[in-house]
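Hi F.,

I've been meaning to write this up properly since the lab meeting, where we talked about keeping a consistent format for the predictions we share between groups. The idea is simple: the sequence comes first, exactly as it goes in, then the C-alpha coordinates exactly as they come out, then a line or two of notes. No screenshots and no reformatting. I'm using this chain as the first example so we have something concrete to point to.
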Amino acid sequence: MKEKHEVTYEYKSLDCYKKLAVAINGMTPGPTISAVQGDTIVVDVINNLLMENVAIHWHGIRQRGTPWSDGTDGVTQCAIMPGLGHTCTIHITEC
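Output, unedited:
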Protein backbone atom coordinates (compact mmCIF):
# COMPACT_ATOMS: atom_id res chain seq x y z
CA MET A 1 0.00 0.00 0.00
CA LYS A 2 1.55 3.34 -1.07
CA GLU A 3 0.13 6.72 -0.22
CA LYS A 4 1.13 10.34 -0.76
CA HIS A 5 0.58 12.80 2.09
CA GLU A 6 1.11 16.54 1.62
CA VAL A 7 1.64 18.78 4.64
CA THR A 8 0.13 22.23 4.03
CA TYR A 9 -1.36 25.23 5.79
CA GLU A 10 -5.18 25.27 5.80
CA TYR A 11 -7.74 27.51 7.47
CA LYS A 12 -9.63 25.37 10.00
CA SER A 13 -12.25 25.99 12.69
CA LEU A 14 -11.11 23.43 15.24
CA ASP A 15 -12.35 25.51 18.20
CA CYS A 16 -15.08 27.47 16.36
CA TYR A 17 -12.62 30.20 15.33
CA LYS A 18 -11.15 29.99 11.85
CA LYS A 19 -7.36 30.14 11.92
CA LEU A 20 -4.35 28.79 10.08
CA ALA A 21 -3.48 25.19 10.96
CA VAL A 22 -1.10 22.52 9.70
CA ALA A 23 -2.97 19.83 7.76
CA ILE A 24 -2.12 16.57 6.04
CA ASN A 25 -3.99 16.14 2.75
CA GLY A 26 -6.22 19.01 3.89
CA MET A 27 -7.18 17.26 7.14
CA THR A 28 -6.49 18.12 10.79
CA PRO A 29 -5.88 15.69 12.38
CA GLY A 30 -4.40 13.83 9.45
CA PRO A 31 -5.97 10.82 7.73
CA THR A 32 -6.14 7.37 9.28
CA ILE A 33 -4.11 4.62 7.65
CA SER A 34 -5.48 1.14 8.25
CA ALA A 35 -3.27 -1.94 8.09
CA VAL A 36 -3.05 -5.49 9.39
CA GLN A 37 -0.15 -7.63 10.53
CA GLY A 38 2.04 -8.52 7.55
CA ASP A 39 1.27 -5.34 5.56
CA THR A 40 3.95 -2.95 4.37
CA ILE A 41 2.96 0.71 4.31
CA VAL A 42 4.85 3.13 2.08
CA VAL A 43 4.01 6.81 2.62
CA ASP A 44 5.54 9.71 0.73
CA VAL A 45 5.41 12.77 3.02
CA ILE A 46 5.84 16.08 1.20
CA ASN A 47 6.48 19.22 3.30
CA ASN A 48 4.71 22.08 1.51
CA LEU A 49 4.97 24.44 4.49
CA LEU A 50 6.80 27.67 3.81
CA MET A 51 9.25 27.90 6.71
CA GLU A 52 8.63 24.99 9.11
CA ASN A 53 10.28 21.60 9.34
CA VAL A 54 8.07 18.52 9.67
CA ALA A 55 8.50 15.27 11.61
CA ILE A 56 5.93 12.46 11.39
CA HIS A 57 4.79 10.31 14.31
CA TRP A 58 2.77 7.14 13.70
CA HIS A 59 0.56 6.53 16.74
CA GLY A 60 0.06 2.86 17.51
CA ILE A 61 2.66 1.44 15.10
CA ARG A 62 5.84 -0.15 16.42
CA GLN A 63 8.87 1.08 14.49
CA ARG A 64 11.11 -1.97 14.77
CA GLY A 65 13.84 -1.57 12.19
CA THR A 66 12.65 1.87 10.98
CA PRO A 67 13.06 4.30 13.92
CA TRP A 68 14.17 7.09 11.55
CA SER A 69 10.61 7.18 10.12
CA ASP A 70 8.98 8.08 13.41
CA GLY A 71 9.31 10.54 16.20
CA THR A 72 10.74 13.81 17.30
CA ASP A 73 12.78 16.00 14.97
CA GLY A 74 16.45 15.75 15.92
CA VAL A 75 15.93 12.83 18.33
CA THR A 76 14.76 9.81 16.33
CA GLN A 77 13.95 11.45 12.99
CA CYS A 78 15.65 13.97 10.76
CA ALA A 79 13.37 16.87 9.89
CA ILE A 80 11.68 17.08 6.52
CA MET A 81 12.70 20.54 5.35
CA PRO A 82 10.27 22.88 3.52
CA GLY A 83 9.83 21.86 -0.11
CA LEU A 84 11.31 18.38 0.43
CA GLY A 85 9.87 14.94 1.03
CA HIS A 86 10.61 11.70 2.83
CA THR A 87 9.43 8.17 2.07
CA CYS A 88 8.42 6.17 5.16
CA THR A 89 8.39 2.39 4.74
CA ILE A 90 6.84 0.56 7.68
CA HIS A 91 6.49 -3.21 7.99
CA ILE A 92 3.58 -4.08 10.28
CA THR A 93 4.93 -6.91 12.42
CA GLU A 94 2.56 -6.64 15.41
CA CYS A 95 -0.94 -5.31 15.90
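Notes:
The chain has one domain: 2-91.
The mean pLDDT is 84.

If this format works for you, I'll send the rest the same way.

G.
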